[in-house]
Amino acid sequence: MITPKRSTRFLALLISSALVAAPAAAQQSKTPAPPKETTRPESNAPAPTLDTLLAADSYKVYGEIRNFGQVIRSGSVSEILDPIMKLAGPPKEFKSLVKFANAHAETLTSSRVLFAAWPARARLPQFLMAIEFASPDDARKFEPQLNEFLPKLLPPPTPTPTPAAATASPTPASSPQASPTPETEKKATENKPETAVTKEETPAPPQFVIKQSGNLVFISDTAFTFKNLRPKDSRLLAEDPNFRQMRDRFATEPLFLYFDIALEDKNRPPVATNEPKQVEVVTDMNQKPGEEPPEMEPPEMMPDTETPEPPAPVPQPEATLEVKVSPPPGQSGVVVTQDAPSSAETFDPLYYMLMGSMFGGQSKYPDAVGVAISFDSEGYAVRVLLINGPDAKSALIPFIPQLISGPSLVLESPSVLPADTEFFVAASLDAPQIYDRLVKAFNESFTADRAVYRGGRVVYGRSGAKPPEGGPFASLEKQLGIKIKDDLLPVLGNEIAVSLPVSTVTGKPDKETPPAEQTSGPTSNQNAAKKRAPSPVILISVKDKQAARALLPRIIDSLGFKGASTLAQTERRGDTEIVSYANALAYAFIGDFFVFSTDVAATRHIVDSYVNHQTLASDTHFRNFTRWQPRQVLGQVYVSPALMDSYRSWANDSTTLISDATRDFLLRLSPTSEPVTYALSNDGVGSLHELHVPKNLVLMAVAGISAEANQSPLMRNESMARGILYMITSSEERYRHEAGKGSYTTLDQLIAQGMLSKDMLENNGYKIELTVSGDKFEATAVPTEYGKTGKLSYFVDQTGIVRGGDHGGGPATAADRPVQ
């Protein structure tokens, strides 16, 4: 039985175990079942095949591994298993599984392995696996070997002792039964016959069932019949249109998964049909539960002078919250009274409702999803095909239903972005439809909730409440002095792109972090950190450049930059004009795109690269690694080789918390860095998501996960020490803004305030020290025993940047490099 500790490790091996863990999938603990069954065909029916095994409504999840033996012995799989076996310290069960799969790889060279899970009907195994052989003889030969191996991999649980029948003569019903004394118990034990037992151990049944029929060998968690897998007159899964389209589309990939999202789960308990209940919340001390609040006009229509004063509340020690469930008929709503917010806390609730409309609403999930994974000598490709239902055809992302996709395009943003772009995302969007969907979702949400904020009073369910006149964008349009639908949307095109530094993806410190001695005091450090923060560059295609030029100054002036036109500075780069505003933001029109960023230098760099014809579209890496993409797409993501370069620098950095074995493995990988590419396209039957990842990047990720799952005590201490310094920084900032009134404090005070734990600071193999001077502080972490409890020393100050290095047990300083 796999122990909890080993189970935790096993999760880190998910990538590889998905390829080789066919037998291990039966380890789900279910109702005990009889041991293996080698059965005769049921009702003299022909032996099932993988294509005639399952009905379309049997399972929601289906998968296939094709040419299983070839997959196991392929270089792509063995290279993934190498760091796992060497760095992760996998449990012996996993090693045995890999050894068994490799030993039988020749037998399974051309075999298909089917697995199904999440049954949609009753009387089906929770998990079913079938292995296909070339002939029934091969299946019969393999079945005993599997039956011999699985009990060793998954031994039955410890036998459970059960009480046996009493052997003593029964006490007559008419005679009272006296409580036994220790003496009588001892005598009874001594006089007990040797053959009598009070307990017996029932052998625990195995956790799996092995079954062979025809050229198939089955593994399941419980016994099953083929009649239940495919009831009479039911439609086969192979005949389901969605499944057939998916499998035909991914016929050559070695790993195929199918998710039938639209399939109804008949095992689920029926949903109660009772009328929905209303939750009534009362915080007014004078309003009794169930009492109808006085009718009020909608706050939008009600002058401030007409707001009735609430009666004086009955003195209470504390305000209480009372929840009452009552049926809705005849009730107009609930009034919640609270303290009026201060001027600093006021906000426009319509903004929050509008944002809720963008990310809220009912998700438009597809009817079915197909996933295929393929690999070659250079990389891995993951393809996901979504067959959409009638309501999901235009949703770009299922959980953001208002994000409507535009037409398929030949994206032009790579012809504007510079060649050294590290990370960019582009998509085709339908702005008019997004606007209409937002307005509709907002109005529906408003009608359902009828919640408006006015003077600290919240009214839910007011019969007279109406959406704001002019729509949810009315206040914004009034501020801008334009009509979004009539003036702005006709100017915009479909393509939008965002470019970011790769550090946004990796989360690693900027290489150009200035040394601590170049800054002085928390203000300058905070300003430097703010300057280093990556600033996105946004590109939006435009249809009418002249109309866009006329609208921009009005929009900028209206969005809090009053008088900004007087600060505007114009500079030219060839035929392109850059407009900047006091180094706070800059924009330019390049080709058919409006380019905008709060980083003026980034805008200048894009314009210079475009003028000098050094664009991403002309970059060798971009051209070579996006050739697989369709010409017209709905979306695109490109991550340059800078991502892999950052991992190499991470492995070379002595402050990186990885073992020497992991570092050696990473440095042995090919020095060639390659990009990550992704495309979203219309496949005819649905939207196709395709991701291509370099093999070396996958191996780096697997090595990192493996090493994390098998950290040495020394590395765990180092990781904990670094985490403690981050916690100290967070606690100091919280104290400074609350009780400290602008000043930091000592460790003892942080512990007294409950912000830190004394035990955590003392039992981690490191000595933590903190010095405070007003609005500055410095914290250090030094190993209590150098080389035994840790090697690296760490330092952090009010900047929040943790620095460190190997100082032989001495303290780190502000001159050390930031740790990664």
Features:
820 residues, alpha+beta, 19-stranded mixed β-sheet, 5-stranded antiparallel β-sheet, 30% helix, globular, disordered N terminus
Task: Give a short summary of the structure.
The protein is an alpha+beta fold and 820 residues long. It is globular and about 90 Å long. Residues 1-41, 164-182, 184-199, 273-353, 451-464 and 509-533 have low confidence and may be disordered.
Fold and architecture overview:
This protein has 820 residues and is α+β, with helices and mostly antiparallel strands. 30% of the residues lie in helices and 22% in strands. It has a 19-stranded mixed sheet. Helix 4 (75-87) runs parallel beside helix 21 and helix 10 crosses helix 11 (431-449). It starts with a helix and ends with a strand.
Low-confidence stretches: 1-41, 164-182, 184-199, 273-353, 451-464, 509-533
Taking the sheet with the most strands, its summary is: 19 strands, mixed
Our estimate of the beta-strand percent is: 15-25%
- Please bin the fraction of helical residues: 25-40%
Shape category: globular
The structure class reads alpha+beta
**Could you tell me the mean pLDDT?**
76
Helical segment count: 24
Rg, nearest Å: 34 Å
Number of strand segments: 33
Q: What is the quaternary state of this protein?
A: single chain
In angstroms, what separates the terminal alpha carbons?
37 Å
Question: Strands, helices and their partners?
Answer:
Blueprint: H1 4-11, H2 14-20, E1 37-38, E2 59-65, H3 68-73, H4 75-87, H5 92-103, E3 113-119, E4 127-132, H6 136-153, E5 160-163, H7 182-190, E6 199-202, E7 209-213, E8 216-220, H8 226-229, H9 241-249, E9 255-260, E10 278-282, E11 322-326, E12 334-337, H10 349-359, E13 368-375, E14 379-387, E15 395-397, E16 400-404, E17 423-428, H11 431-449, E18 452-454, E19 457-460, H12 474-480, H13 484-488, E20 492-500, H14 503-506, H15 521-532, E21 537-542, H16 545-558, E22 568-573, E23 576-581, E24 585-590, E25 593-597, H17 600-611, H18 620-625, E26 635-639, H19 642-652, H20 660-668, E27 676-682, E28 687-694, H21 695-709, H22 713-737, H23 747-752, H24 758-762, E29 766-773, E30 776-783, E31 792-797, E32 803-806, E33 817-818
Helix pairs in contact: 4-21, 10-11
